[in-house]
Amino acid sequence: MDIPKEGEIVQVHSYKHDGHIHRVWQETMVLKGTRNIIIGANDRTLVTESDGRTWITREPSICYFHAERWFNIICMLREDGVYYYVNISSPFVFDNNAIKYIDYDLDVKVFPDMSYLILDEDEYADHKKKMGYPEVIDKILRRNLETLLSWIKQRKGPFAPDFIDVWTSRYEFYKNMKSEK
């Protein structure tokens, strides 16, 4: 698997279990790229839905993808604090200048005070039947949801107090480098 370079602009592709594209984010700047972790950032990037509709993100975001965890984390930087949107998903692969993963419907919304809501359980149950999610996938996703909830409670990974400061500084550094060119 290729590894994206820091400062590089890549796309993010979300798929569904049946192989269909779900959503594409046009531009995400890589802040860290290793075999196991990609941390990226974007601000007001174009997003294209599977039906062709488009929209633009409203605020800067730091994005965390892991090659061994079945979730990815979007940290949305808003005036009243950091909100997190977590996709329960396959681990990422980096292919053809894009971060790619399978979205498994379940989402977790985390508020600045670290309270959270588990979202879309009905959508998960519906897609599990329609797309035939194997029982092993269900077990993996449930176990990773438990891991994610422990990360939130322990303020681990992207939920750690200094995570946002470190990566927003890095994002500003790369944006300034690009604007000087």
The amount of helix comes to 25-40%
Q: Helical segment tally?
A: 3
**Count of DSSP E strands?**
11
Taking all Cα atoms into account, the compactness measure Rg is 16 Å
Low-confidence stretches: none
Order of helices and strands: EEEEEEEEEEEHHH
Helices and strands: which structural class?
A: alpha+beta
Work out the strand percent. 35-45%
Our measurement of the CA-to-CA distance between the termini, rounded to an integer number of angstroms, reads 30 Å
Question: What spatial order of strands do you see in the largest sheet?
Answer: 1-2-3-6-7-8-10
Sketch the major β-sheet: 7 strands, mixed, barrel
From the spread of the alpha carbons, the general shape counts as globular
Overall mean pLDDT:
96
How would you summarize what this structure contains?
This protein is an alpha+beta fold and 181 residues long.
Walkthrough of the structure:
With 181 residues, the protein is α+β, with helices and mostly antiparallel strands. It has a 7-stranded mixed barrel. Helix content is 27%, strand content 42%.
Which terms would index this structure?
alpha+beta; 181 residues; 42% strand; seven-stranded mixed beta barrel; 27% helix
Write the layout of secondary structure elements.
Layout: E1 9-15, E2 21-33, E3 37-42, E4 46-49, E5 54-56, E6 61-66, E7 71-78, E8 81-89, E9 93-95, E10 98-110, E11 116-119, H1 121-131, H2 135-154, H3 163-180
Parallel strand pairs: 1-10
Antiparallel strand pairs: 1-2, 2-3, 2-4, 3-6, 4-5, 6-7, 7-8, 8-10, 9-10, 10-11
Protein name: Nucleoside triphosphate/diphosphate phosphatase
Catalytic activity: a ribonucleoside 5'-diphosphate + H2O = a ribonucleoside 5'-phosphate + phosphate + H(+); a ribonucleoside 5'-triphosphate + H2O = a ribonucleoside 5'-diphosphate + phosphate + H(+)
EC number: 3.6.1.15, 3.6.1.6
